[in-house]
Amino acid sequence: MKGIGGLGAFRACVCLAALLFLGVFLVYPLATVLLASVRDPDTGAWTLAPYRQIAASRYYLGSVGNSLLAGVLSMGFVCVLAVPLAFCLARLEVPGKPVLLTLASLPLVLPSFVGAYALVLLFGHAGIATVAMRDIGLPVGSIYGMPGIVIVFTLTLYPYVLMPVMAGFQAVDIAIEEAARNLGGSRFHVFRTVLLPVVMPSVLAGALLVFIEALENFGVPAVLAEDRPFLALDIFKLFAGESDSNPGAAGALSVLLVACTAGVLVLQRRWLARRRFATGARRVPPPIVLGRGGRIAAGVFCWAVVLLSVLPFAAVLVISFQHFRGPVLNWEITLSNYAALLRGSYRPLWNTLLLASIAAMAVTLLGAPIGYVLARHRSRLSTLLDIVVTVPFAVSGTVLGIGLVIAFNSGWLVLTGGWLILSVAFVVRKLPFSVRSAGAIVHQIDPSLEEASINLGVSPLRTFLTMTVPMMAAGLAGGMVLVWVTVTSELSATIVLYSSRWRTMTVLMFQSLEGTAPGEAAAAASILIVFTALPLLLVYRLLQRQGMGVL
Amino acid sequence: MTAIRLEGVTRSYGAVRAVDDVSLTVNEGEFFTLLGPSGCGKTTLLRMIAGFTDVEHGSIWFGARRIDAVPAHRRNTGMVFQSYAVFPNLTVAGNVAYGLRARKVGRAETGARVARALASVQLGALGERWPHELSGGQLQRVAIARSLVIEPAVLLFDEPLSNLDAQLRTQLRVEIRQLQRQLGLTAVYVTHDQEEALAVSDRIAVMRAGRVEQVGPPEAIYRTPGTAFVAEFMGSTNMLPGRIEAVDGAEIAVRAGGAMFRVQGAAGTVGDPVLLSIRPETMRVLAGDADGRSVTEDGRSVTATLVLREFLGPTLRLHTVLPDGTPLRVAALGGQEIRQGAGGALLLGYDAAQIILYPAS
User: Fold this and answer.
1) Residues B112 and B54 placed together within one structural domain of the fold
2) Which domain covers residue A98, as residue numbers?
3) Which of B207, B233, B259 represents a domain boundary (last residue)?
């Protein structure tokens, strides 16, 4: 582009480099998964046998059905829980609101399979609560399978609806409400006919994200499904299982899973594109004053939901310091679980910290320029990039991991078994978050600032480096911490890609689940909780300024 | 001092021609305004001069130097933005020094020039302040100082006053005009506010749908608008559809609104549909009797019925209707005494030379 002095070349370079990276490490691996499902591994002939195999198997149909059902139920429960909660937090006076808001954001980063494990520790076959209640004669239903999985998804995914809907309730211009009241609507009538329709797009957008997350999640069903079929779990078993490995069927199930999530994602994007209900409130609407009874009810409800969602994690922390004799808990404080877990090797912990740091830095270095170019500049190339960069949202970590293994196990580039393939998987998975967060930051910077600088004689490239980048720095740092935190608790791709040398804390935790020492698993879970919750709390203020949109 | 010449400049976005074959010359030291409704292409044209929008066809010249292929940062223009665009991470003095640093001006000289520039916009004491401590008007002053200090070839203003309140707007536009004149800089000023354009400009180009509708000094644009669009855009005018009844040399009789207007105009043919532009302040309420009997010697008057009067202080706005119900607004001096109430008949005199006739399109 003439007249833009270096910036045009910079934009094109960013677009091309990003497309090359995603082409090699996202599109190509996904294509190999697709290919694996339609080619006979021995003869190389085209075949639909894996799909027929799945269609004929009650087990695998059940797997698809269970996953979809879990997604739909979680979505429903999340809405029932999160929409009233959002209303209370946005519009009512609830005691301890800042603390509530902080706590409510924790489930976004705390590893959900740790939550699932907490449920097992408390209410599982030999769970602490189960045993205690059995002792006093109270029967406890089984939490394994669908009930437990839906409970965990609901309690860990509700912030996806809570955050945007809360913002929605706060963005409703009070004048619109007053107009409706002035025209004779009762409070409830106004809520139903004015407020709810305005926030409905946010509810749906968030709910569909919950559905996608629930469908893709590997860790929660891995802990709670026992032998029941679940899609993400079965893909992994079919691919990595020692006895019944079947890459074709794994590929076919993967294609089904990606098709489901991608379809829902497209639906969600359509919704977002059409949501033009924001009423441009100039200020946050004043809190609605309730009577004493109402106030107490609202406070109890909010605290109950939020505490319920973080209590399992707190329970795990406490339990990790208790002494276990075999599977039996003794109430005495000890560090023996941690000692046993790390057994002289801090390697998994270092691996986790190292990989998370590498991934966080790499994803920020890649995501920030992409976010900038996408926010500031529209071209055919950048539109294509915008679409490709969204794809990882729709691809579960397990499927991406399988694709990377197939693609880079042999041939021109061999990466399997090393740290690089893990880092690549993390970078690809977190890139959409990073790009979106960088884009949100760029949108807050007036483009006139850059033009003023150029106009005053500083070249576009130098303007970008000396003005735009420093202005983005604080936001980028916040986003980086968030990526670091989520990579720390990543399981679904790691479980496919790790090698014995590159085990991470999540793998260690996953493996100790299968063992008979609950203390060690609790210790691993606690380490994960500390490494995810602490950084988030440290940068919480910073992230709040960006409206937590990056999550 | 630099003259600016645009030759056949064009820029389209998709199927829309934002700027369509515009040719203009801005003289050295001239204050030239691009005026038009939003979407008329005035800002695009300004951004092409600044180098932020590529020129598709045509050329732009600063004096004898063609600049449309020169990168924006080497054009040496000083641009003032609607959103101020004051760097939030620099102090006021830092903002003003920014362009000098880019030009590698020495420390001592930078300091002196920054101080002079700040003094010229009456911010001499605020050099160490941070932008968030300043008001909108002060921020825009910083931006003006920042673009003056680099001694630009041309000054560019992109609706610089539209984020300010009315009083500040009037005050700052006087200062801008005085600074420009003192420094003898060529300035291109974009606005959609016709009063602002009339107040500050040496010449105005009225734009519409990417094209220049008329170029001229403010008085000419206001008094003898070349097209009905310019007439309507330059302040409120009454646009009356009518038909030519008779042509008598330079005088044309037009029936409009149920009354007969005798105007001067280019030749027309009897029966042609036309538009009459009558500015409210060109009509005079005659002290004639309420019966509407003509008291002017030349008979250049019409009768109208008063519907509503608005007292605006300096002026009195009368909403009237012509005999067939066509509304006609009349501005009288606020001091003038008009006895008629709503429903009363008014005798309105006019000057034939001030009514402008356009062919109805």
Assistant:
1) yes
2) 57-313
3) B233
Domain of B111?
4-233
B324 shares its domain with B222: no
Quick one: pLDDT at residue A4?
46
Q: How many domains does chain A have?
A: 1
CB A414 within 8 A of CB A408: yes
Query: In sequence order, what are the residues at sequence separation of 6 or more whose Cβ sits closer than 8 angstroms to the Cβ of residue A229?
Result: A59, A60, A62, A63, A66
- pLDDT at residue A458 in the model: 92
How far apart (Å, rounded) are the C-alpha atoms in residues A278 and A494?
A: 40
Q: Can you give the pLDDT at residue A330? A: 76
Residues B304 and B182 in one domain: no
Distance, CA of A324 to chain centre: 32
CB A4 to CB B69 under 8 A? Answer: no
pLDDT < 50 regions, chain A? 1-5, 547-551
Q: Kindly state whether residue A29 falls inside one of the protein's structural domains.
A: no
Q: Which residues of B touch A380 (CB under 8 A)?
A: none
pLDDT at residue number B305: 93
Interface test with A, best of B43, B73, B103 (most A CBs within 10 A): B73
CA A163/CA A77 separation, integer angstroms = 16
pLDDT higher than threshold 60 for residue B294: no
- 8 Å CB contact between B165 and B172: no
Nearest Cα of chain A lies from the Cα of B24 at a distance, in angstroms, of 21
Q: Would the CB atoms of A460 and B82 count as touching at under 8 Å? A: no
Task: Give yes or no for a contact between B92 and B123, defined as CB atoms under 8 angstroms apart.
Answer: yes
- Please give the backbone phi and psi of residue B277, each rounded to the nearest 5 degrees, phi first: -100, 115
Kindly report the nearest CA distance between residue A471 and chain B, in angstroms. 8
Structure tokens at A549: 């949109």
Q: With contacts defined as CB-CB under 8 Å, which chain B residues touch A463?
A: 73
Of B233, B261, B280, the one marking the end of a domain is: B233
Among B52, B69, B146, beta carbon nearest to A456:
B146
Query: Given this model, what pLDDT does residue A193 score?
Result: 82
CA-nearest residue to B84 within chain A is A448
Same domain membership, residue B245 and residue B229:
no
Residues in B touching A3 (Cβ below 8 Å) = 51, 54-55, 68-72
